[in-house]
Amino acid sequence: MKEIKLRNGDLLTIREASEGDASAIIEFIKTIGDESDNLTFSGSEFNNTIEEEKVILRDHKEKENQIFVIAYIDGEIVGQMNARASQKPRLKHVCEFGISTRKQHWGKGIATEVLTYLIEWAQSNAVIRKVNLRANVNNEKAIALYERMGFQHEGLHKRDFFLHGEFIDAVSMGLIID
After folding, report:
1. How far is the C-alpha of 3 from the C-alpha of 73, rounded, in Å?
2. CA torsion 12→18→20→22, rounded to 10°?
3. Which of 34, 61, 76, 142 could form a disulfide with 43 if both were Cys (CB 3.0 to 4.6 A apart)?
4. pLDDT tens figures, 152-170
5. In whole angstroms, what is the distance from residue 118 CA to residue 113 CA?
6. Single pTM value for the model
7. Structural domains of the chain, ranges and CATH numbers in brackets
Protein backbone atom coordinates (compact mmCIF):
# COMPACT_ATOMS: atom_id res chain seq x y z
CA MET A 1 0.00 0.00 0.00
CA LYS A 2 1.16 3.48 -0.82
CA GLU A 3 -0.23 6.84 0.29
CA ILE A 4 0.43 10.01 -1.67
CA LYS A 5 -0.66 13.58 -1.02
CA LEU A 6 -1.94 14.93 -4.36
CA ARG A 7 -1.26 18.49 -5.52
CA ASN A 8 -4.81 19.51 -4.53
CA GLY A 9 -4.27 18.18 -0.99
CA ASP A 10 -6.28 14.94 -1.32
CA LEU A 11 -4.73 11.82 0.21
CA LEU A 12 -4.58 9.08 -2.43
CA THR A 13 -4.16 5.47 -1.32
CA ILE A 14 -3.03 2.85 -3.83
CA ARG A 15 -3.12 -0.83 -2.99
CA GLU A 16 -3.55 -4.22 -4.57
CA ALA A 17 -7.20 -5.11 -4.98
CA SER A 18 -8.67 -8.09 -3.14
CA GLU A 19 -11.77 -10.20 -3.70
CA GLY A 20 -13.60 -8.06 -1.14
CA ASP A 21 -13.28 -5.12 -3.56
CA ALA A 22 -15.18 -6.88 -6.36
CA SER A 23 -18.51 -5.09 -5.93
CA ALA A 24 -16.93 -1.63 -5.66
CA ILE A 25 -14.73 -2.32 -8.68
CA ILE A 26 -17.75 -3.33 -10.77
CA GLU A 27 -19.55 -0.13 -9.77
CA PHE A 28 -16.44 1.91 -10.60
CA ILE A 29 -15.96 0.26 -14.01
CA LYS A 30 -19.61 0.73 -14.97
CA THR A 31 -19.33 4.42 -14.06
CA ILE A 32 -16.09 5.12 -15.92
CA GLY A 33 -17.29 3.19 -18.95
CA ASP A 34 -19.86 5.93 -19.51
CA GLU A 35 -17.52 8.83 -18.70
CA SER A 36 -14.95 8.40 -21.46
CA ASP A 37 -14.63 7.38 -25.09
CA ASN A 38 -11.05 6.28 -24.44
CA LEU A 39 -12.00 2.90 -23.00
CA THR A 40 -12.77 -0.24 -24.98
CA PHE A 41 -16.25 -0.56 -23.46
CA SER A 42 -19.20 1.43 -22.15
CA GLY A 43 -20.74 0.98 -18.73
CA SER A 44 -23.66 -1.00 -20.13
CA GLU A 45 -21.27 -3.37 -21.92
CA PHE A 46 -19.51 -4.34 -18.70
CA ASN A 47 -21.54 -7.19 -17.24
CA ASN A 48 -19.22 -9.07 -14.90
CA THR A 49 -20.90 -10.58 -11.87
CA ILE A 50 -19.34 -10.25 -8.44
CA GLU A 51 -18.21 -13.88 -8.64
CA GLU A 52 -16.61 -13.33 -12.07
CA GLU A 53 -14.81 -10.25 -10.77
CA LYS A 54 -13.58 -12.20 -7.75
CA VAL A 55 -12.10 -14.82 -10.08
CA ILE A 56 -10.25 -12.07 -12.00
CA LEU A 57 -8.93 -10.55 -8.77
CA ARG A 58 -7.88 -13.97 -7.44
CA ASP A 59 -6.15 -14.75 -10.75
CA HIS A 60 -4.16 -11.52 -10.57
CA LYS A 61 -3.18 -12.21 -6.95
CA GLU A 62 -2.05 -15.77 -7.65
CA LYS A 63 0.17 -15.03 -10.65
CA GLU A 64 3.52 -13.41 -10.03
CA ASN A 65 3.47 -11.52 -13.34
CA GLN A 66 0.07 -9.85 -12.92
CA ILE A 67 -1.28 -7.10 -10.68
CA PHE A 68 -4.60 -5.35 -10.10
CA VAL A 69 -4.57 -2.16 -8.06
CA ILE A 70 -7.15 0.33 -6.93
CA ALA A 71 -6.66 3.95 -5.94
CA TYR A 72 -9.04 5.65 -3.59
CA ILE A 73 -9.69 8.92 -1.83
CA ASP A 74 -11.84 9.00 1.31
CA GLY A 75 -12.91 5.39 0.79
CA GLU A 76 -14.11 5.92 -2.81
CA ILE A 77 -12.37 4.19 -5.71
CA VAL A 78 -11.12 6.94 -8.02
CA GLY A 79 -8.76 4.90 -10.18
CA GLN A 80 -7.77 1.37 -11.08
CA MET A 81 -5.14 -0.42 -13.10
CA ASN A 82 -4.71 -4.02 -14.03
CA ALA A 83 -1.76 -5.59 -15.76
CA ARG A 84 -2.07 -9.02 -17.33
CA ALA A 85 0.58 -11.29 -18.71
CA SER A 86 0.67 -14.62 -20.48
CA GLN A 87 1.73 -17.69 -18.56
CA LYS A 88 3.51 -19.07 -21.64
CA PRO A 89 7.26 -19.18 -21.01
CA ARG A 90 8.05 -17.19 -24.16
CA LEU A 91 5.65 -14.37 -23.26
CA LYS A 92 5.37 -14.27 -19.47
CA HIS A 93 7.94 -11.46 -19.17
CA VAL A 94 5.58 -8.95 -20.86
CA CYS A 95 2.45 -7.48 -19.29
CA GLU A 96 -0.13 -5.20 -20.85
CA PHE A 97 -2.12 -2.85 -18.68
CA GLY A 98 -5.28 -0.83 -18.66
CA ILE A 99 -5.73 2.19 -16.42
CA SER A 100 -8.65 4.47 -15.68
CA THR A 101 -9.63 7.35 -13.42
CA ARG A 102 -13.03 8.81 -12.50
CA LYS A 103 -13.69 11.86 -14.66
CA GLN A 104 -14.32 14.14 -11.68
CA HIS A 105 -10.73 13.39 -10.61
CA TRP A 106 -8.98 13.91 -13.96
CA GLY A 107 -6.02 16.25 -13.81
CA LYS A 108 -5.15 15.55 -10.17
CA GLY A 109 -2.17 13.27 -10.92
CA ILE A 110 -3.91 10.00 -10.01
CA ALA A 111 -2.99 8.23 -13.26
CA THR A 112 0.62 9.34 -12.85
CA GLU A 113 0.76 7.88 -9.33
CA VAL A 114 -0.93 4.61 -10.35
CA LEU A 115 1.39 4.27 -13.35
CA THR A 116 4.40 4.95 -11.10
CA TYR A 117 3.13 2.17 -8.81
CA LEU A 118 2.96 -0.19 -11.80
CA ILE A 119 6.46 0.67 -12.99
CA GLU A 120 7.92 0.23 -9.50
CA TRP A 121 6.14 -3.13 -9.21
CA ALA A 122 7.49 -4.21 -12.61
CA GLN A 123 11.03 -3.14 -11.69
CA SER A 124 10.91 -5.20 -8.51
CA ASN A 125 9.24 -8.18 -10.20
CA ALA A 126 11.50 -11.12 -11.02
CA VAL A 127 9.54 -11.98 -14.18
CA ILE A 128 8.34 -8.76 -15.86
CA ARG A 129 10.87 -7.19 -18.24
CA LYS A 130 8.50 -5.13 -20.39
CA VAL A 131 5.20 -3.27 -19.97
CA ASN A 132 2.93 -2.64 -22.98
CA LEU A 133 -0.20 -0.61 -23.61
CA ARG A 134 -2.62 0.37 -26.35
CA ALA A 135 -4.31 3.76 -26.40
CA ASN A 136 -6.87 5.50 -28.58
CA VAL A 137 -4.85 7.93 -30.76
CA ASN A 138 -7.21 10.73 -29.74
CA ASN A 139 -6.35 10.27 -26.05
CA GLU A 140 -3.58 12.87 -26.23
CA LYS A 141 -3.31 13.48 -22.48
CA ALA A 142 -2.80 9.80 -21.73
CA ILE A 143 -0.27 9.40 -24.55
CA ALA A 144 1.65 12.42 -23.23
CA LEU A 145 1.66 10.84 -19.75
CA TYR A 146 2.98 7.56 -21.13
CA GLU A 147 5.72 9.41 -23.02
CA ARG A 148 6.70 11.33 -19.85
CA MET A 149 6.93 8.00 -18.00
CA GLY A 150 9.35 6.63 -20.61
CA PHE A 151 7.07 4.57 -22.84
CA GLN A 152 8.15 4.42 -26.48
CA HIS A 153 5.87 4.35 -29.52
CA GLU A 154 6.01 0.91 -31.11
CA GLY A 155 3.22 0.81 -33.63
CA LEU A 156 -0.22 1.77 -34.82
CA HIS A 157 -3.31 -0.45 -34.92
CA LYS A 158 -5.50 0.80 -37.76
CA ARG A 159 -9.26 0.93 -37.12
CA ASP A 160 -8.84 -0.52 -33.62
CA PHE A 161 -11.83 1.31 -32.05
CA PHE A 162 -15.29 1.81 -33.52
CA LEU A 163 -16.87 4.79 -31.85
CA HIS A 164 -19.79 7.03 -32.78
CA GLY A 165 -19.94 5.52 -36.26
CA GLU A 166 -16.27 5.86 -37.15
CA PHE A 167 -13.09 3.83 -36.88
CA ILE A 168 -10.26 5.16 -34.73
CA ASP A 169 -6.67 3.97 -34.63
CA ALA A 170 -4.81 2.92 -31.50
CA VAL A 171 -1.15 3.45 -30.69
CA SER A 172 1.02 0.73 -29.15
CA MET A 173 3.61 1.79 -26.63
CA GLY A 174 6.07 -0.13 -24.51
CA LEU A 175 8.48 0.35 -21.63
CA ILE A 176 11.48 -1.93 -21.28
CA ILE A 177 12.11 -2.52 -17.59
CA ASP A 178 15.69 -3.82 -17.51
Report:
1. 10
2. 90
3. 34
4. 999 999 999 999 999 999 9
5. 9
6. 0.94
7. 2-129 (3.40.630.30)
